Amino acid sequence: MFESLQSVPADPILKLAAMHREDTNPNKVDLGLGVYKDEQGHTPIMRAVDVAEQRLLQTEDTKTYVGMAGWARYNQLIADVVLGENNAITAAGRLAIAQTPGGTGALRVICDFINAAKPGAKVWVGKPTWANHHAIIDNAGLTLDEFPYFDATTHSVDFDAMMAKLRSDAQAGDIVLLHGCCHNPSGADLNLDQWQAVAELAKQKGLIPFIDIAYQGMGDGMEEDAAGLRIVAKTVDEMVIASSCSKNFGLYRERTGTALVITNNADTATIAQGQMNGVIRGNYSMPPSHGALIVQTILDDAELKADWLAELAEVRERIARLRGELVQALNDAGIERDFSFIERQKGMFSFLGVDKDQVNSLVNNHSVYLVGSSRINVAGLNDNNMAAFAKAVAAIL
Ligand code: LMR
Q1: Is the model's pTM score more than 0.85?
Q2: Residues contacting 127, CB < 8 A, separation 6+
Q3: How far is the CA of 325 from the centre of ligand 1 (A)?
Q4: Which fold would CATH assign to domain 11-44+317-396?
Q5: 232's torsion region: left (phi>0), alpha (psi -120 to 50) or beta?
Q6: Nearest C-alpha to atom 2 of ligand 1 is from which residue?
Q7: Is the CB of 13 under 6 A from ligand 1?
Q8: Closest ligand 1 atom to 371 CA
Q9: Active-site annotation, residues
Q10: If you take atom 1 of ligand 1, which residue's CA is the nearest one?
Q11: What is the residue with the minimal CA distance to atom 4 of ligand 1?
Q12: CATH 3.90.1150.10 boundaries in the chain
């Protein structure tokens, strides 16, 4: 039976890590997979994570199951991180929440949950969006449609086109998937007025906002990066959120994320929690424990939390500095094209804005690894590779 299987193309993002690993060029540059890297090109374990792990090693005395929704305390803490401390939604009991295997796990749990509420529901995604959104939505049996999001000529959000499409084509009960901050792949985010306008449109048309917030803290700050999401949460009655601790806690391989479902009353939240737990039980049964316990240990300890926030600020400031330095390096390489947009964008990603052949040339002739869409992970740059990267870009232009 397995002979009938069709081969599946390699994941466009994950395959880059393997290609980079196999490249023997000592000057290779990895701007592919979205992981933070320090000046040495290393993805470090954050200081607070290290301390929390050591503490857990000494105190954890069982490996018994955690339950379908994971650790209750972790979930409470993440509700505060995402929706704000003392938020009205948690207080009103309007929240169903589950710890998940990473942000991807949260996305899938939410899609399965939506499919239980409305089989085959339509999910609107921006064009472009994170490539894996398409697979997750498809695999859950939902229907996908697209609205325009990024304008490659202005290097910014085409907000008028986005709103026009949603206003004319989205129907009550449709889901609208938005990136909470640090848009992946474009780095172009909505401003707060635009968030308010989207929230009002959703309320007026009965659309369900679905916010994927995988990079909270990597743009302007933990609170600032959640501001748009919180505007939506204040405006609409129902929404869903996928949050991730992969980037802001650097816990990538520990698969630590959270699915949040906001309902319009507490009774529905109780039913939603049961549905979500059922979805989880029928899939992976329950989430891994370790990453969530690390996050819980940090957020419950004032000193560790302060140190984590300080290190996250260092990460954020370094990425912002790299954006400025990259614009300068491209200038210094004699490139006339205006790349100043890179400095205006947020988080780890920007589109270089070159075509597929030029991307292939960067990969094959210059050992510079980036996604085929020309997405670069700015955090992969450092003092050692910046000039070489700018020179390679100059060569392919
Ligand atoms: C990325 O977009 O590179 C990250 O979110 C990692 C991934 O799983 O694709």
Answers
A1: yes
A2: 146, 147, 148, 149, 150
A3: 24
A4: Aspartate Aminotransferase, domain 1 (3.90.1150)
A5: alpha
A6: 34
A7: yes
A8: 3
A9: 130, 212, 247
A10: 34
A11: 34
A12: 11-44+317-396
CATH of domain 65-300: 3.40.640.10
pLDDT per position as a tens digit, 332-349: 999 999 999 999 999 999
pLDDT digits (tens, 9 = 90+) for 180-235: 999 999 999 999 999 999 999 999 999 999 999 999 999 999 999 999 999 999 99
pLDDT for residue 301 is more than 90: yes
Start-end of CATH 3.40.640.10 domains in the chain? 65-300
Among 14, 16, 30, 130, which is best to mutate for testing ligand 1, by the most ligand atoms less than 8 A from CB?
Answer: 130
Residue 12 has pLDDT above 90, yes or no: no
pLDDT tens digits, one per residue of 124-161 = 999 999 999 999 999 999 999 999 999 999 999 999 99
Q: How far is the CA of 33 from the centre of ligand 1 (A)?
A: 6
The single-letter code of the amino acid at 191 is N
Q: Is the CB of residue 67 less than 8 Å from the CB of residue 288?
A: no
At 208, the amino acid letter reads I
Q: Is 186 in the pocket of ligand 1 (CB under 6 A)?
A: no
Burial class of 396 by CB neighbour count within 10 A (0 to 12, 13 to 18, 19+): middle
